Amino acid sequence: MKEEDIxxxxxxxxxxxxxxxxRTIEVGDWIKNAERTKDDEAGVGTCWREYWQIxxxxxxxxxxxxxxxxxxxxxxxxxxxxxxxKRFGLSSRKWIEGSFIIPGHHDxxxxxxxxxxxxxxxxxVEAIKK
Length: 130
Ligand SMILES: [Zn+2]
Description:
By secondary structure, the protein is an alpha+beta fold. It has 3 helices and 6 strands; from the N terminus they run αββαββαββ.
């Protein structure tokens, strides 16, 4: 990531006054699609994928957290998800309040029926809408 971009992102964060929670999702953590989010507009940036980049200042991953297949170019979507508070191995889940954004295939996220385990480690940014 270019220093110039990082500087721009920091300015956008400061202007917005937003301070979303950023969590690390580990491989094997349970995640699921957050429903009823399609009309939500990102609190900062032009879209949710840009929103993720503004707050993480990271490049998009080259693999999709849902399916582990190649993720690149315009196909990268800012996906709304819920994150399990517990670790895998437990039969019941407790979903952390609010929804979070991770980059991934849109089709993979909406295809999740119930829940799935993350295939890569990825930062998730709390989704704060406009
Ligand atoms: Zn995928």
